[in-house]
């Protein structure tokens, strides 16, 4: 076994002895002093041994018996000396990973050439491209999907505010997301729906989801049950989603008709539930508002309307009118948490859901 | 972003990759090819959390929960005190009822999915788990034939877990374990984070690699790093 392992074992032993001796030697200060001195000496030894892992020259690293520690030692040595040739002392895939670390740290594309595996090479080039915001090197990656992913990462670094990156993506999976995100971000940040016309108007769930989860208008707290209203809708195209989002952000119902179809109807519905200043919540009528919602979303729609109504009127009986236990629980929990009123939770018969409700009602600080 | 609350994975090297741990309430998918270690890794994360006193629940949909524990102990002899955590209730390993519902085809899809969600909530409720693993969500996909219903169901599941105050780790089988095929089907956008595990195939020897592809609410390393499944747990070769 290596010195390191012996040192660590020693340290543990001393730790135990040290603790028990303190109790035994309360009346014997000399012994306590000796033990303390011994601990100090051993701790110093251990820290030298541990320190050598990071600072040892090549030979010291290579002398380490335990493979994992040897690999870590060589990797750290390569990084600290910015010397990728040290990585060649490692077997695959540790050598490649080591090269990626050195290259990424020094932002040297040439160093990436020392990798053997194509996955590590493409990760190496992508890391440097992303950290330097320079997508031109992505073309060095031969696999079209990996090369496109490299450019996608650079585009992502810039929050998709530079459309030229999208042109470098040969793989349609990445290119279509990139273009859609770029125009969607322009549309939502300027509340100018003209940008939506550049977004594809054919069904593409991947792009649709990319917009809703990566777009600038993404808001963590809004990614809840009401998001699922449109996320699951098959006939929403990325373009109609863009109209929908700009409509809601700018509170402009005219844009809902541009969205068209089911998402257009949901757009109108969302404007109702989001316009907290103008809507008379007491008169919200779930069955009227949700009448044109597709059958598979009717339950969500009713839940959304009833929750908005309950939460804005502080009226738990609105939740109890939903008629589906799980959804009533969700509505009641929202209400309890909003008003910090855990007594509402007693309307929940399921004990698990009730305790979750109580926790969320009492934990809420803001 | 510096003050985001995180749950440490406790897995050697993985917290370095995550710049500290998984942000609380994130629903993270651990995606990989067959045998990449998804089950063992998610179980190890729960084990370390439970050891720190964080109530955790593992929902086994693919195997008998007892098999999961048995395999965990045989792969990781140094974690054999997992039984203590199970006995004192800090770690719950369950899922038989939900697994049975998935296997029986008699129920309608949405009805039985609703029951699976409530089975999961019941398990989470037994120890008020703050960290939950579901192994695997790919099985739920098999159960629900309609893609739209499946996506809707996954949304319902993740938003329910978030509502329960739970940080989630879902395992998922990837169609390809090669990194160049890294593309995610639509349902992956629902998740707040993606950890991808690959076979770094060199003909004779099996080597493994992982990377964080996405982690909402947090910065993270973008490096593809090797990992090993050792008797002392997973070892991820990240830089500290
Ligand atoms: N006792 C053990 N000792 C060492 N390694 C083991 C042991 N048991 C399992 N493994 C490793 O763990 C891998 C399987 O782990 P795990 O079951 O977590 O993978 P998985 O990704 O969940 O697989 P599946 O796709 O079958 O669900 C095996 O390929 C093997 O390399
Ligand atoms: Mg498994």
Question: What does this protein look like?
Answer:
The complex is a heterodimer of chains A (366) and B (240). Chain A is 64% helix and 0% strand. With 366 residues, chain A is mostly helical. Among the domains of chain A are: 171-275, no CATH class; 277-366. Chain B is of the alpha/beta class and 240 residues long. Chain B has one domain: 3-Layer(aba) Sandwich (Rossmann fold). Chain B is 35% helix and 23% strand. In chain B, strands 5-4-6-7-3-8-9-10-11 form a nine-stranded mixed β-sheet, with helices on both faces. In chain B, strands 1-2 form a two-stranded antiparallel ribbon. In chain B, helix 2 crosses helix 3, helix 5 runs antiparallel to helix 6 and helix 6 runs parallel beside helix 8. The longest helix of chain B is centred in the middle third of the chain and has 18 residues, at 109-126. Chain B is globular, with a radius of gyration of 17 Å. The two termini of chain B are 20 Å apart. The mean pLDDT of chain B is 87. The chains are: A mainly alpha (366), B alpha/beta (240). The interface between A and B is large, with 57 and 48 residues. Magnesium ion binds at residues 38-39, 62, 135 of chain B.
Assembly status: heterodimer
Share in β-strands of chain A:
under 5%
Total individual domains of chain B = 1
**Helix-strand sequence of chain A:** HHHHHHHHHHHHHHHHHHH
Q: What sort of overall outline of chain A do the alpha carbons produce when their principal axes are compared?
A: flat
Number of strands of chain A: 0
Level-1 CATH class name of chain B = Alpha Beta
Cα Rg of chain A: 30 Å
Order of helices and strands of chain B: EHEEHEHHEHHEHHEEEEE
Task: Name the poorly predicted regions of chain A.
Answer: 1-25, 51-56, 218-226
Helix content of chain B: 25-40%
Main β sheet profile of chain B: 9 strands, mixed
Shape category of chain B: globular
